[in-house]
Amino acid sequence: CTGTEVHLAACPLEYSKPNSTSFCLGGMPAVVSCMPGPLFLQNSSLKKKVKVSTNVRLKGGSKLGEGRVEVLKDRDWGTVCDDRWNLQSASVVCRELGFGTAKEALTGARIGQGIGPIHMNEVKCVGHERSIWMCPYKNITAEDCQHTEDAAVRCNVPYMGLENSIRITGGRTHYEGRVELLIPDSNGTQRWGLICGETWTTKEATVACRQLGLGYANQGLQETWYWDSSNVTQMVLSGVRCTGEEMSLSHCQHHKTVSCQKSAAKFAAGVICSETASDLVLNAPLVQQTVYIEDRPLHMLYCAAEEDCLSKSAAKANWPYGHRRLLRFSSEIRNIGRADFKPKAGRHSWVWHACHGHYHSMDIFTHYDLLNANGTKVAEGHKASFCLEDTDCQEGVSKRYECANFGEQGITVGCWDLYRHDIDCQWIDITDVKPGNYIFQVRGGVLVRTLDFLIYRPQTS
């Protein structure tokens, strides 16, 4: 081998002849010693010695070691164009992230489209480089590439057998069910048990679906009484808290001893997994371009108060006199995933709000938080799904969702939903916030985006 091949079969070699009585004269069986990547190291002291790449990442993949390739340049994450994308270049990315060689070099945005800049085109790695940034590449011009050509990888990863200690039971399909874990008891024998559903969210469900090899988490369920199909009734894990990036539920935080207020089996955690998923991202530049402060009279805020869109101190105001100071902005949420985003509740359960004259398909679609330098929340707002629809779409994509006439709500892949700055509740009530530097955070499902803001009040004479 030259060392640049992605697997041994690509190296020149000689097969031993069939029926040969002697082979490999003067030689011994080859032995290798591999260095595990940071994700697979058990020894915490070794983890500190192994450098983890901070300027390359994989996004959008459902399994460990797969995803859209994104690189960091000038503090801005961007994608890689798939022109000339091959196994050699993909293997450099995989090794840089602590995996093996590349199993597949994917083109045509097979694992979803990115958003923002495209930093690299025509990457030409030899195969021995330590980073994709060491490979020759071309800079992007506007005509070169679109996000429909984003490159992705599937890496070879060590077989961990993690799927052998988890199963789901009782579901209508093999993609859903109550989560059961195989753990050793005090006698050392293995037994199946349930997970307390009290702290169970989409993040924990994401890890469970990944461990099961069933793709993405569509829902994390805190009650599974309708999936009671096995004889397993005992809770063996509680207080599970995951970041969503873990390989296994055993890698997440949890109680040392089981503590579950609702210990009946019907309150065990469950999941609904899916091979594809939506991926919502915030158009951050639009927030920065449209943000402004407005002093809005209280007599114009009755509906907003009914929707709970003002801070608590508004209840003590002298209605209808006075005003509230609002940080207003437009919010554009794009779906760059591989499945449409739709409210989990069907139209029959949507709630009519007479004040604004619309249905709510979700209680809260996005949270708006204002944090101080220490990360403490000082003000907040939220956006209920007044109307979740395809405001506009990229070229070649047709709109599917429209709110008019009690229509279906959702966001199609390749489309975006725009809430303009002049719509009620599209704000944070900052009446009680002192001037200073703050962090503005937008959260919706697993979407989190933060921006820095300076809030000031003009000097008055």
Q: In a few lines, what is going on in this structure?
A:
This protein is mainly β. The chain has five helices and 25 strands.
Write the layout of secondary structure elements.
Blueprint lengths: L43 H6 L6 E4 L6 E8 L2 E5 L6 H10 L5 E5 L11 E3 L31 E4 L10 E5 L5 E9 L5 E6 L6 H11 L3 E6 L13 E3 L32 E5 L5 E3 L1 H7 L1 E6 L4 H5 L16 E6 L2 E5 L15 E3 L4 E3 L5 E6 L5 E7 L8 E2 L21 E5 L7 E3 L6 E9 L2 E9 L6
Tell me what you see in this structure.
The chain is mainly β and 461 residues long. Helix content is 8%, strand content 28%. The chain is built from five helices and 25 strands. The model has no long low-confidence stretch (mean pLDDT 85).
Question: Any key phrases for this structure?
Answer:
mainly beta; six-stranded mixed beta sheet; 25 strands; 461 residues
What is the mean pLDDT?
A: 85
Number of helices: 5
Low-confidence stretches: none
Percent helix: under 10%
User: Major sheet: size, sense and barrel closure?
Assistant: 6 strands, mixed
Proportion of beta-strand residues: 25-35%
What is the terminal-to-terminal distance?
79 Å
Q: What's the helix-strand series? A: HEEEHEEEEEEHEEEEHEHEEEEEEEEEEE
Q: Report the radius of gyration as a whole number of Å.
A: 26 Å
Number of strands: 25
The secondary structure category is mainly beta
Which of globular, elongated, flat, extended, rod-shaped describes the shape? globular
